[in-house]
Amino acid sequence: MSDSAESPPQRSFRRKLLQRVALLTVGLFISFAMLEVIARLLPEPLGVSCTSGDNQLVYTDPEIGHRSVPGLDCRINASGLPDYRVQTDEHGFRDELAAGAQKRIIVLGDSMLYGVHVDQDDLFTEVLQRSMTDLDVVNTGLSGTGTAQQLLLYDNVISAIPHDLVISTFTVHNDGIDNAERKDPTRARYVVEDGKLALQHRPQDAGRTVRELIDSTGIKSPGMVFDLTEELPGFKQLYESLGLKVKKTDTQGASGPPPDPIIRARAHGELSSVLLSEIARSARGAGREHLVVLIPSHEPYWFPERPEVAYFIELANVVRTGLEADGLCVYDMADDLRPYTQDFDQMLTLPESEIIYIAWDHQPGADDLWNKHWDVDGHRIVAGLIQAFLEDPDSCARL
Questions:
Q1: How far, in Å, are 86, 153, 203, 286 from residue 129 at the CA level?
Q2: Residue 41 has what pLDDT?
Q3: Phi, psi of 23, rounded to the nearest 5 degrees
Q4: DSSP class of 75
Q5: This model's pTM is above 0.85
Q6: 324, 277 in Cβ contact below 8 A?
Q7: Among 120, 123, 26, 106, which residue's Cα sits nearest to residue 379?
Q8: Cα 135 from chain centroid?
Q9: Distance CA 371, CA 123 (A)
Q10: Side by side, which strands form the sheet with 84-87?
Q11: What are the pLDDT digits (tens) for 336-394?
């Protein structure tokens, strides 16, 4: 008998082994198919569907940082909130340059300007444009950006676009932190050395996270499995050992006891004021006007007893006084927006997750992050306030 010949017990064992492998494979296939069906039926916290592109909304520009992909036409769904449409022009702006306008305003900002869960026609820049004759108001905002990236965007892209006035929006709630403490490698970081602005870190492409790679396949079930396992002991190490990033790095300063809020606010305010002044110098050097609009944090309105409120109040004061001392035009919206906030007694009856930032319409089911952005009514009111400021004959802003 040759060595390769198998005895009947061996053949039986191999046959049973193959049967078990086949059953296991079929079982796994059926399980993932069922999981895929469940994943597609469940509401997604953030769903993106684009008629152009691969459902990726941003990319990393090595000169500027993360930017919106040009030429997008997408519907975005955030669980508990209305879907909204995002369209971008050739520059990646959520807007389009209007031909034939006599004057143009460029507006810089973060997610407050970008308009989370608000359709483009309802953004305050669009409302303002419709209200003021022969005026083109261009929205260049992008979620997650701070003044440092807006400075690079202005110098590298926007300065070449004809315009008459630049409005820099400064969101007191997080722009100071974004400018001074965020360590995401896709962000530019500046420091002030001997009174001068110095670029400390240039933006770098951090690549896609595991979840972004999964989402790019269009298959839902692996994403569900990943969401359930990414923080479990062993799984995070496994993903990282394969060279896959679990989350993008976004460290906010060193660990240790929290710093004094006043000292922290002054440090953030100094850097932010210098960044805003640098944008103004670039604009004015080309004969353009510049206005800074301070968007207040919700914290002093809703939670005045919290110790961290001192940070937001001091930051707004430091930025405003620093810019005015530098001869810049500043519009602080805090007092003008106060009449439009929810009744304070009503606010006390709501859980924190249901309190909407400068709110008019209650949006049940939305988490705290989304609720800190203006809704459609908010954008309409802000447009009216900015228009009134620009048209005031005593205003420091000139068109």
A1: 18, 22, 33, 23
A2: 62
A3: -65, -40
A4: E
A5: no
A6: no
A7: 123
A8: 27
A9: 16
A10: 46-50, 73-78, 84-87
A11: 887 776 544 555 565 555 544 444 333 433 333 334 678 787 888 899 999 999 999 99
